[in-house]
Amino acid sequence: MPEPGKKPVSAFSKKPRSVEVAAGSPAVFEVETERAGVKVRWQRGGSDIGASSKYGLATEGTRHTLTVREVGPADQGSYAVIAGSSKVKFDLKVTEAEKAEPVLAPAPAPAEATGTPGETLAPAAELGESAPSPEGSSSAARNDPTPGAPDDPIGLFVMRPQDGEVTVGGSITFSARVAGASLLKPPVVKWFKGKWVDLSSKVGQHLQLHDSYDRASKVYLFELHITDAQPAFTGGYRCEVSTKDKFDCSNFNLTVHEAVGTGDLDLLSSFRRTSLAGGGRRISDSHEDAGILDFSSLLKKSSSFRTPRDSKLEAPAEEDVWEILRQAPPSEYERIAFQYGVTDLRGMLKRLKGMRRDEKKSTAFQKKLEPAYQVSKGHKIRLTVELADPDAEVKWLKNGQEIQMSGSRYIFESIGAKRTLTISQCSLADDAAYQCVVGGEKCSTELFVKEPPVLITRPLEDQLVMVGQRVEFECEVSEEGAQVKWLKDGVELTREETFKYRFKKDGRRHRLIINEATLEDMGHYALRTSGGQALAELIVQEKKLEVYQSIADLTVGAKDQAVFKCEVSDENVRGVWLKNGKELVPDSRIKVSHIGRVHKLTIDDVTPADEADYSFVPEGFACNLSAKLHFMEVKIDFVPRQEPPKIHLDCPGRIPDTIVVVAGNKLRLDVPISGDPAPTVIWQKAITQGNKSPARPAPDAPEDAGDSDEWVFDKKLLCETEGRVRVETTKDRSIFTVEGAEKEDEGVYTVTVKNPVGEDRVNLTVKVIDVPNAGEDSCTVQWEPPAYDGGQPVLGYILERKKKKSYRWMRLNFDLIQELSHEARRMIEGVVYEMRVYAVNAIGMSRPSPASQPFMPIGPPSEPTHLAVEDVSDTTVSLKWRPPERVGAGGLDGYSVEYCPEGGSEWVAALRGLTEHTSILVKDLPTGARLLFRVRAHNMAGPGAPVTTTEPVTVQEILQRPRLQLPRHLRQTIQKKVREPVNLLIPFQGKPRPQVTWTKEGQPLAGEEVSVRNSPTDTILFIRAARRAHSGTYQVMVRIENMEDKATLVLQVVDKPSPPQDLRVTEAWGLNVALEWKPPQDDGNTELWGYTVQKADKKTMEWFTVLEHYRRTHCVVPELIIGNGYYFRVFSQNMVGSSDTAATTKEPVFIPRPGITYEPPDYKALDFSEAPSFTQPLVNRSVIAGYTTMLCCAVRGSPKPKISWFKNGLDLGEDARFRMFSKQGVLTLEIRKPCPFDGGIYVCRATNLQGEAQCECRLEVRVPQ
Questions:
Q1: Which residue numbers delimit the Fibronectin type-III domain (predicted)?
Q2: CATH architecture of the domain with residue range 547-632
Q3: Which residue, 182, 470, 576, 754, has most beta carbons within 10 Å?
Q4: What is the CATH number of domain 794-857?
């Protein structure tokens, strides 16, 4: 299977670039490989390019060159170069030899203008399709890297957003570029203001977020666009980008300046150019602003109207934030911190607190320590002061403790009046406050040790487990002992949940262990560090056991070997073999084996005692596989069994799902196989080729496969053991591998296994997916010339388009269009667009035309899938298919079906119009004809590509021998209760449709109660309400001409039995009565299960059951009461139930009273008094303050003891906050809403005349954090 976590290594050291050349000129593409001798292939449109008069191929060492001679419009398109598993695509664009006069575009503004900030114009290359910025706008993404710029070696950014300035009311765009060559999915980008404000929730009139993807450079572009900027927008911003296993962020600032006062000076009219070349860019769409602003003049002359108040804006000096905070009142701290991007407010206040004290003139120090220092972990830092007295003694303190000379960690230096403390190899322990003390005076500083981010060196891997299995996620980070967080679906897993999750740390490795997985554990698990996070998905599936091969009945002779064999879907399932319901113990003659998914029971030297019912019961599953062993006296020579080959795929119904692989990744198909002798494995790929007729249509003419294509179907044999596509076969499996999957690898693969016993075959569908291409849909735009040409002839037209809900117009042509119509291409299907046109003459561009009516480009659907022939007769063919994979925005109107004779080219419609169904019966076909069928999907854009049957279909009924497929449960006696419905369904095979005949006891079925329903594939015997008369032997026969097949069914209709006969009392003695009766006259057409005997007292006549399921016809009823009279009755019972009535004795039977004198026994009085003892003592408890708590124990004693409760030796009987309860020896002390003061030692004391006992416990009251 593909390995999405690994980036493939490229075989190229220098890749080709897309070029644009004039028609008639040659085009040269160069590429360099990592080593010499590598075979390089050049392709165009998926087909290989060879050396010819048109193409020239050259190789010099590691340098390879492709030359396209005399380039023409037909050569324009996409090309590719392949070396090993690496493939690089590039484009060739052909322009006309005679170009229009070049258009002069305004030069891009510099990164930092000398004029008013925020009044620069973004370069044209940066704006792309976006609309021009209004006056006062700027772009923060300048000096964009070229598409081929290398990736950021530190993080994910190719280009980070830069600081920007804008004037109030202006617009600004911040851009971030992210490398996407190694990403399977688009990265997740979030924009923040300050520390917490997520800007995605603020999108609206003043803020928009945009993203796009450049397929050529494989770079993602993310933009933050701010319009109508306000002073409140000033502050620090942050851009965060994250992928599955990487994380990066970048900070930048935005400054919003007040608008410059201009008095009565009209800037727009003063600095507007009066003319524009025909191809120039239009900056404003308003009716008053007819020209283009000359920003270069505006920047040069803006100083003439600046007010003195705004002179600071020209080159703002770097300000000391801490000095501003010292001078400001505390109420302004938060605003200043937000304005200057300070996010650690707690650290700011702590540092500011030490700076607030008024600094006195120091007499001991000429130069003090800086307020704070910062150093990276593992680096060296020097703390230097300059003294007023060079001979003064100096002490260095760390967190108030004097630093002693110890090795090379701390180095003290004294050079003249300078004193230096050097800390080498800084660690997190050195992050502290340091002081330099001279006499009674000292100066302080704070050292911050910056810890490098903890990076993830080996990410988490996705897990697929069954319920109850153990799950272990493992991740490796760059630092030993690093602090990490485990999260599930974004929620942190804390130590309070350790009863379910276990965390292990082993050096740089971190593990999350789930001992027994449940369905609730499914989700996305993440390990987060200070430098990124790793994400993996856990999928938990319920245990489902599928039986591939059940055990079958066996008939063996004496001294032979009996082998019961079954195969299940899970290799780890164990099971138990049973013989007649009892567990079978293996010995020297009976052997039990378990190899993979196969379970075997082998019995050597079979004897008559081995004849029994054998069952296999898998552990943990409600499943039972059973079969019977029949012993046969006749000696049968043992013939070794040969096992036919079989392909084992874990998929229901032997129809595997489509295997999806991302383009460029590795595809590995691991197919387990079995068979004895070892089978031969053959891999093939289905190939569909279309051979065009010699007369090719024009390039713009629509293609019709039915008119010019002859379809040829073949299969390609895959047998290479090395290379990009290879096959490896072992004894028990076959492995098919594709390195760097390409679109050409998509298709249906057939794997066939053969041996002398038989063969097995499976089709595997492989689909290669890639990042989407832009839609190639087009539309034709027509317009009328302008009513007034401005006194100069119209030179041409400029066409623009935009999405309906967007405000940005995109220019479609850079060369003027001379005609009054144009075909616009590269539009996205399903998106609503609008168009507008400009007229251009020698003076300039006109105002834009009104926008066109909104329209949506729609493309036809793709071809239907899985076209198959369902049935064939002498004049009809039944077809079925599945809907197309891509329907598109135009929906699906229906399908058309056509057929064509083999070798012909004329396709005939099989039905009028379209059908909405995915199956059809084509009628009135000539018998014996060989036809090809094809199906197209249609929508409002027209028909899509057709799908054609792989082989011609012969229209002829296939003669198939009739055969009844009698289900296993109908092979035994069928038992039904009276008045139950009988529905016996028996499938059969045979072509043409066989004739079905039912008989009972050799006679045709008679009567309306028994009916027979026949279909082309099965027959049903139906009885609405069964009666006893319907019991008997039924025979069903299917016949085709002189061929037939029969099956016999035995139906037994059962009912409740009649009551027993002649119930009588045979004897009565003591407390016992003997009863006897005869079996019932009618047993209900089934075996009797026994009798139920009941008795009733003559006084109450309430019946009580004495015996159930009693098999004999006589019994003794014991333990009767002296002096009472009893009636007796007996019910007969079978599988249906008890008889409706019972046989009852006519006269009661009396139990006489014997003459016995009762003498009561003499008992000695017992003393039950005992001392108190606690059967359940008090236990220590820890509770949360504010929640009522109970202390419980249990005591026994006689007489009932007196209970007293104490806390720390004090009696609690008078305290109203405590309530005592005593119920049947269970003692309870209730503490209402305890507080920490209520914690202590609690004692319960029990006292009576026999003694005293007590127990104690400790109560801890915790305050919630």
A1: 762-859, 860-958, 1059-1154
A2: Sandwich (2.60)
A3: 754
A4: 2.60.40.10
Say which CATH architecture domain 12-95 belongs to: Sandwich (2.60)
Strand order, beta sheet including 47-48: 19-22, 86-95, 77-83, 40-44, 47-48
Q: Does domain 157-256 have CATH number 2.60.40.10?
A: yes
Q: Report the length, in residues, of the chain.
A: 1265
The percent of residues in the chain predicted with pLDDT above 70, rounded, is 84
Query: Does residue 1219 register a pLDDT over 80?
Result: yes
Q: Which two tokens stand for residue 957?
A: 């009924």
The distance from CA 1052 to its chain's CA centroid, rounded to whole angstroms, is: 54
Burial of 749 (0-12, 13-18, 19+ CB in 10 A): buried
Q: Which of 202, 194, 178 is nearest to 238 (CA)?
A: 194
Tell which residue, 731, 735, 553, 577, has the closest CA to residue 631.
553
* pLDDT band at residue 453 using 50, 70 and 90 as cut-offs: confident
Model pLDDT for residues 807-846, shown as the tens digit of each residue: 888 888 888 999 988 888 878 777 888 999 999 998 888 9
> Which architecture characterizes domain 365-450 according to CATH?
Sandwich (2.60)
For the cut 80, the answer to whether the pLDDT of residue 1030 exceeds it is: yes
Class of domain 1172-1262: mainly beta
Distance CA 766, CA 663 (A): 12
Domains in the chain: boundaries: 12-95, 157-256, 365-450, 457-541, 547-632, 794-857, 864-955, 1172-1262
CATH (one of 1.20.210.10, 2.40.10.10, 2.60.40.10, 1.10.3720.10) for 864-955: 2.60.40.10
Residue 369 · residue 383 · CB < 8 Å? yes
Distance between CA atoms of 1178 and 1121, rounded to whole angstroms?
52
Integer angstrom CA distances of residue 941 from 46, 279, 828: 27, 35, 14
Instruction: Give the span between the Cα atoms of 904 and 1043, in whole angstroms.
Output: 39
User: SS3 for 599-646, per residue?
Assistant: EEEEECCCCHHHCCEEEEEECCCCCCEEEEEEEECCCCCCCCCCEEEE
Q: From CA 341, how far away is CA 348, in angstroms rounded?
A: 12
Note whether 114 and 101 are within 8 A (CB): no
| pLDDT at 302 exceeding the cut of 80 | no
Count of CB atoms within 10 A of residue 557's CB? 15
Chain position carrying tokens 């994979």: 885
Q: What is the 3-state secondary structure (H, E, C) of 208-262?
A: EEEEEEECCCCEEEEEEEECCCCHHHCEEEEEEEECCCCEEEEEEEEEEECCCCC
Q: Does domain 457-541 have CATH number 2.60.40.10?
A: yes
Residue 675, burial from CB neighbour count under 10 angstroms (0-12, 13-18, 19+): buried
Supply the pLDDT for residue 291. Answer: 39
Is the distance from CB of 851 to CB of 797 less than 8 angstroms? Answer: no
From the list 264, 257, 271, 234, the residue with the least C-alpha distance to 310 is: 257
1156-1193: pLDDT as tens digits: 677 888 888 888 899 999 999 999 999 999 899 999 99
Non-local CB neighbours of 818 within 8 Å, separated by 6+ positions:
796, 797
Task: Kindly report each contact of residues 343-347 with a partner whose C-beta sits within 8 Å and lies 24 or more positions away, as own/partner.
Answer: 343/194, 343/195, 343/236
Residue whose structure tokens are 């002069």: 104
Virtual CA dihedral for 106, 108, 110, 116, nearest 10 degrees? 60
Smallest Cα–Cα separation from 939: which of 860, 828, 831, 855? 860
Which neighbouring-strand residues pair with 750? 684, 763
1144: pLDDT strictly greater than 80:
yes
Report the alpha-carbon distance of residue 721 to residue 731 in Å, rounded. 16
Average pLDDT over residues 740-753: 85
